[in-house]
Design goal:
Blueprint (H helix, E strand, L loop, with lengths): L4 E12 L2 E13 L4 E5 L6 H8 L7 E6 L2 E2 L5 H11 E4 L11 H11 L5 H11 L15 H13 L5 E5 L7 H18 L2 E5 L3 H5 L3 E6 L2 E4 L6
Parallel strand pairs: 3-8, 3-9, 6-7, 7-8
Antiparallel strand pairs: 1-2, 1-4, 4-5, 9-10
Helix pairs in contact: 3-4, 3-5, 4-5, 5-6
Bound molecules: adenosine-5'-triphosphate and magnesium ion.
């Protein structure tokens, strides 16, 4: 089977004044279509940096990222944006919704960018799938945290991407709402055969994934079945 996502020898160092922080050291990871992978690691270990690199939002110093056999390093910025909006859905801890757009407009946006026909019809369906048919015209400031995250999930899923990258999607929510949101993400990904890469601090959530990898001292190690 061809991997859906392949990271080869990813290295990333941040420079802040005199200080150098070597966050990722020679990271390799292969993810198969439909697989669900959890990334665990202490705060500051580089999980969000790694996820941003997978999404092509940040660039490694060395190494390659292939998604659907497309090398993200060799495509232009414009093509990269189009590629990302079609193939990769991203859910962030802080939702990252557009403040001045309604729920419906936020979810339609990726399709507008792709010039898809009937974006708002598809966005309504996506909002229905996350249980928000009655909040279409609300702005993010008029929605609860859990509702904002549902909008963000609908937006991430709207283009039917093959891969969902989720960075602590329940980190900002109370326990019950967080569990609902995670249940929704797992359920939608399984129903649609989407690959899920989930950054989390929660070991119980990680256990629900097919595989867990741990980022520590810049190195990614596979968690064995005995440790799980
Ligand atoms: N733009 C940047 N400039 C300088 N240093 C950065 C930058 N972005 C991240 N870092 C540093 O890289 C390290 C990894 O950050 P990152 O956000 O990837 O960690 P994380 O594992 O996601 O942490 P958390 O669990 O707290 O979200 C941190 O020490 C951080 O200070
Ligand atoms: Mg982070």
């Amino acid at each position: 089977m061809q991997p859906l996502l392949q990271l080869k020898k990813i290295t990333k160092t941040f420079h802040q004044g005199e200080q150098c922080v070597e966050v990722l050291k020679n990271i390799n990871l292969s993810v198969n279509p439909g697989e669900q992978i959890a990334i665990l690691g202490q705060s500051g270990s580089g999980k969000s940096t790694l996820l941003s690199i997978m999404a092509g939002l940040d660039h490694p110093d060395l190494g390659t990222i292939e998604v659907n056999q497309e090398n993200l390093a060799t495509i232009s910025q414009n093509e990269l944006s189009r590629f990302r909006s079609k193939h990769i859905g991203i859910v962030f801890q802080q939702y990252h919704l557009m403040r001045h757009l309604t729920a419906l407009e936020n979810v339609s946006l990726p399709l507008e960018l792709q010039r898809t026909v009937e974006p708002s019809k598809k966005a309504r369906e996506a909002l229905h799938a996350v249980g928000l048919s009655n909040r279409l015209d609300h702005f993010p400031s008029q929605l609860s945290g859990g509702e904002c995250q549902r909008v963000a999930i609908a937006r991430a899923m709207i283009s039917e991407p093959s891969i969902i990258l989720a960075d602590e999607p329940s980190g900002n929510l109370d326990q019950k709402t967080g569990e609902e949101i995670m249940g929704l993400i797992f359920c939608l990904c399984r129903d649609r055969g989407q690959t899920l890469i989930l950054v989390t601090h929660n070991h119980d959530l990680a256990k629900k994934c097919d595989r867990t990898v741990i980022l520590s001292d810049g190195i990614l190690v596979e968690k064995s079945a005995q440790e799980a």
